[in-house]
Specification:
Blueprint lengths: L4 E5 L6 H14 L7 E5 L5 H8 L5 E4 L16 H6 L4 E4 L2 H6 L4 H13 L3 E6 L3 H5 L3 H12 L11 E5 L13 H18 L2 H6 L2 E4 L7 H5 L6 E4 L6 H8 L3
Parallel strand pairs: 1-2, 1-8, 2-3, 3-4, 4-5, 5-6, 6-7, 7-8
Bound molecules: 2-phosphoglycolic acid (PGA).
Length: about 250
């Protein structure tokens, strides 16, 4: 059985006080043993306090990014070792905002993934097409290209530490979601690609999350699809009540 996962990506939102407030509300709302694995990804400055606040809960704390080098003269960057030294062993890589605004190419992402895996971290690898790609019926090929560039050179043994997050760019923060059918169609395509390029075992066991305007009123329908194993949640994860409702949508 694949892990069901709901991860909240808090992006560049919430200062320390706001983070503490959100964490307090989350702890109040959340059932002790949710069916899904729950993750939250605060900003770098809020990672340590979040990790401390959640350490007696099953919630996993993830970073939103990390650098591909182990250490060195990379002003403003954060390494895998730094994350691990505060207890954080999960990292989101390849989010479309990183690809679009910070020029993270397939090549850079492949290096980041490799570094994370070598440091025994878990990677939530994000990818997905732009509206133009879908309009021109290039979405399946584009997703294949992103997976190939970022992941298909990894040894099979690395895949136990990979979570995939399909996030069509046109659905992120726009209020427009892929329909459950569109999500299922793409997730099935992704699983077929895993089968072909990595192997059946990995295809069957890798969790594929959907991301893009998941809200309490659409999560159930999307998560009910056969190849959708959960969600990566942006906007709605900033509200504890909404996020917990999404967590409980299986
Ligand atoms: P959204 O963001 O839920 O606000 O659309 C999703 C994401 O970017 O991971």
């Amino acid at each position: 059985m694949r892990d069901k996962i709901v991860a909240g990506n808090w992006k560049m939102n919430n200062d320390l006080a706001e983070t503490e407030e959100l964490l307090g509300k989350l702890k109040l709302q959340m059932v002790k043993e949710p069916e899904a694995t729950v993750m939250v990804a605060p900003s770098f400055t809020n990672l340590y306090p979040t990790f401390q606040a959640l350490k007696d809960t099953p919630v996993i704390v993830a970073a939103q990014n990390m650098h591909e080098s182990e250490s060195g003269a990379f002003t403003g960057e954060i390494s895998a070792a730094m994350l691990k030294s505060i207890g954080v062993t999960t990292v989101i890589l390849g989010h479309s905002e990183r690809r679009a605004y910070f020029n993270e190419t397939g090549e850079i992402l492949a290096k980041k993934v490799k570094t994370a895996i070598e440091n025994e971290m878990t990677v939530i690898f994000c990818f997905g097409e732009e509206l133009e790609d879908r309009k021109n019926n290039r979405h399946f090929d584009l997703v294949e290209k992103q997976l190939k560039e970022g992941l298909f050179d990894l040894p099979q043994s690395s895949w136990k530490n990979i979570i995939l997050a399909y996030e069509p760019v046109w659905a992120i923060g726009t209020g427009e979601t892929a329909s459950p059918e569109q999500a299922q169609e793409m997730h099935k395509h992704i699983r077929n690609l895993l089968n072909k390029n990595v192997g059946k075992e990995v295809a069957d066991s890798t969790s594929i999350l959907y991301g893009g305007s998941v809200k309490p009123n659409n999560a159930k329908e999307i998560f009910a699809k056969k190849d959708v194993d959960g969600g990566l949640i942006g906007g709605a994860s900033l509200n504890a009540v909404d996020f917990v409702e999404i967590v409980n949508s299986f």
